[in-house]
Amino acid sequence: MAERGRSGVSKNKHDFSELWPIAERLAEAARVETLKHFRAFDLTADSKAADFDPVTIADRNAEAAMRAILQDLRPNDGILGEEFGITEGTSGLTWVLDPIDGTRGYISGTPTWGVLIALSDAKGPILGVIDQPYIGERFLGGGGRAEVTGPQGTNRLGVRRTIDLNAATLFTTFPEVGNASEGAAFRRVAEQVRLTRYGCDCYAYALLAAGQIDLVIEAELAAYDIQAPIAVIEAAGGIVTDWEGGSVHQGGRAIAAATPELHKAAMAVLT
Amino acid sequence: MAERGRSGVSKNKHDFSELWPIAERLAEAARVETLKHFRAFDLTADSKAADFDPVTIADRNAEAAMRAILQDLRPNDGILGEEFGITEGTSGLTWVLDPIDGTRGYISGTPTWGVLIALSDAKGPILGVIDQPYIGERFLGGGGRAEVTGPQGTNRLGVRRTIDLNAATLFTTFPEVGNASEGAAFRRVAEQVRLTRYGCDCYAYALLAAGQIDLVIEAELAAYDIQAPIAVIEAAGGIVTDWEGGSVHQGGRAIAAATPELHKAAMAVLT
Predict the structure, then answer these.
(1) Are residues A54 and A104 both part of a single domain?
(2) In chain B, which residues have their Cβ closer than 8 Å to the Cβ of A107?
(3) Do A108 and B207 touch (CB under 8 A)?
(4) Per-residue pLDDT tens digits for A27-54
(5) Is residue A6 part of a domain?
């Protein structure tokens, strides 16, 4: 993060004073569309895959609304969205959009799904938004910002200093995701931590950035599932990699940790 | 519920026009105390038992605040609280209080813990409150009321009409609770439903009453964990029993279902 700096305007070419208002406009547009159908009785859910993977009207409308804003304000940027795929750009920047991360939570009425928005250059995400529209809570990270705005006002994000597995709180979407060997690896870590909680979707990454939990371990992620969490957690001082310690920008198996010590300890048990 | 009726004042001796404002005052008092420490960095958590069962300052202060109100306004009623145990009464009514249901969620920063308040007579709970202070969301059931007030305003609660296991959404705190045979019984049901989600604490019962999910299956409950959910779900038209179909007012293993058909089908697989 050094070359980007912590000030409002980065040390490289990105003008965050222009980019942040656009990211927040995207979040607002997605918020309107996702809330229109949240907890509505007429909600319809298709299945994209053989297993249960609902896609709602809200999901599609939210991404379409974000794409319309980008087409207007950032026509040279690329877009990678969960619902409508890849739109190539020429600026070297790509908006990475997951209009509803946690569709299973969304259709169940829980308040832990979220809208994920990231902006990436060739090296990875440079800013990220995790937005929870029902609560009215928005976690922002990148370009000098690391903050949450919600029911308690606006507060700085920052990871906590947990370094030992036996003092750590671990969150995951397991047992809902992952194959048998991934599940077994996850359980080896779960057996060593202080507390394990399940089923929080993207909200778990927000809690890590907010200093409430220490570890998130997941599998089967797409790029749009993890890029916004990466930006928010890195801005808060944490670490996100794949299970081997490499880049997870393109998805796969992710481990997010509050400290380098904890990250290393968890990876040693995982792999 | 027939003898209590669905109007604001019941057909028996209970004066709900007096009782509801008191229940809501209790919720307000607990809200203030629980939010004081939610997501605070100085949160301390003891362990009551050998396994992980945190009790926070907020938990104790919230119950104390509710008890002070009852001592003032309802000195003849009994109190059963998670933190301070039983206070005998003479009125035949008992306030059943869980100041923070889901302490593991609370200390992790999640928005799915809740304040549980029930009022019971000899037959069981006659009113219940499930309050989520961080979201600002309150689910009420009993004495003619079945409603939620929160980010979407005030709306009526009502279960949905799901009758088949393979169309049902199931929530639970498993795999965090229950012994091996209970866990196995739970998984037999989980294998037959459309969707299973984990780790939502009392919020799962609220979602069932709000028509968002269809089944909740849990074990190791205390009376104060389940009495408020019973009142809210019954007011919304649902069913809550133990795994054998009997009363679960005193805690134990609970199954909550949207419809009698679904309740019967799930019990047949469980036991």
Answers:
(1) yes
(2) 169, 195
(3) yes
(4) 999 999 999 989 986 444 444 443 444 5
(5) no
CATH of the domain at B218: 3.40.190.80
Q: Are residues B183 and B71 in the same domain?
A: no
> Range of A174's domain?
165-270
Q: Which two tokens stand for residue B165?
A: 């296991």
What whole-number distance in Å separates Cα of residue A4 and Cα of residue B167?
Answer: 49
**A215 to chain B: closest CA residue:** B108
pLDDT at residue B3, rounded to an integer:
41
Q: How far off is chain A from B184, nearest CA to CA, in Å?
A: 14
The residue among A182 and A215 whose pLDDT is bigger is A215
Which of A134, A156, A178 is the last residue in one of the domains? A156
Q: Could you say which of A110, A152, A194 has the minimum Cβ distance to residue B52?
A: A194
pTM of the entire structure?
0.91
Q: Specify the pLDDT at position B9.
A: 41
CB-based contacts of A60: which residues, under 8 Å, 6+ apart? A83, A84, A99
Q: Are residues B26 and B68 in the same domain?
A: yes
Q: Within a domain: residue B11?
A: no
Substitution target in A39, A42, A172 with the highest count of B β-carbons within 10 Å is A39
Q: Is B160 on the interface with A (CB under 8 A)?
A: yes
The residues near A80 (Cβ < 8 Å, ≥ 6 apart) are A86, A87, A94, A95, A96, A97, A223, A224
Instruction: Give the end of a domain, one of B113, B132, B156.
Output: B156
Contact at 8 Å (CB) between A190 and A170? yes
pLDDT band at B48 (very low <50, low <70, confident <90, very high): very low
B212 with A171: Cβ contact below 8 A? no
